[in-house]
């Protein structure tokens, strides 16, 4: 397992992160969508992850209505002091007028609830789960800054922000002298490369680290789906994130060829592609079954050559969109020089 610096912070995280969205009990709020591990399997997954070298675990207040945080806290136990916990706020399953969002009221309430469920007195990385259009960013940033100063939070991150929202948040934090976001958690996969349009350029320019979620597009890139009929799985009842199936099956064909040549699984090659992409700090892997997690952990050992990366890049390429299809104008370019002359 390799470890990478998280943005411009002094924190180093493993290149794979264990996601705990499946940590739930049978009949729990996420069980019907994500599946449910139960506490015994959740603890085993944490054990396997630590043995593989993972040092960071991702959860959220909304995952299974807080059960995921509780299970993660119990699974880590006394090892918590040596591990990093990332959790989130802003989304809730309740419906009160002040329950949702990243207001000062919500942040102070949710951090205390998460600390209690996790059984810890600090959170290593506290992430705003989504952009809140109804709360001034200044209010959110000042509240998060207070949590860092109080010692309840070590670092702050964001998730599901657009490129302009990331830039605005970073600029405002600098202006206010507040704690800056060190990371962005976003969706990215071979069948979902939209991150490359605005978000990835923004975070790389500003020096943020990245956590990639749904790297297998909720199982589409697991290797169990085929043109002649999709296998039963999470996507059969929850077809998200959206996938261009025509392009997707072409990507799977290339993945399968590379996987066969490397004696690896399709999922491992799809994860390895992300680990080789510039700007990716850590890829979040999760599973409903132990064998799925073991397979995903093996992606850290898959090396892809330039030719293999080029094949995967070509088959999964985004269609150019304005202004991306316009030529870049640089000093010294022949076109620029002719116009200047």
Describe this structure in words.
The protein is an alpha/beta fold and 341 residues long. It has a single domain (3-340), classed as NADP-dependent oxidoreductase domain (TIM Barrel), CATH 3.20.20.100. Helix content is 40%, strand content 13%. It has 13 helices and ten strands. The chain has helices at residues 31-34, 38-52, 67-76, 104-118, 137-150, 163-176, 199-206, 234-237, 245-262, 266-275, 290-297, 306-315, 334-340; strands spanning 3-5, 12-14, 16-19, 56-58, 84-89, 123-128, 153-159, 183-187, 209-213, 282-285. The strands form two sheets. An eight-stranded parallel barrel has the order 3-4-5-6-7-8-9-10, surrounded by four helices. Strands 1-2 form a two-stranded antiparallel ribbon. Strand 6, helix 5 (137-150) and strand 7 form a beta-alpha-beta unit. Helix 2 crosses helix 3. The termini are far apart. The model has no long low-confidence stretch (mean pLDDT 92).
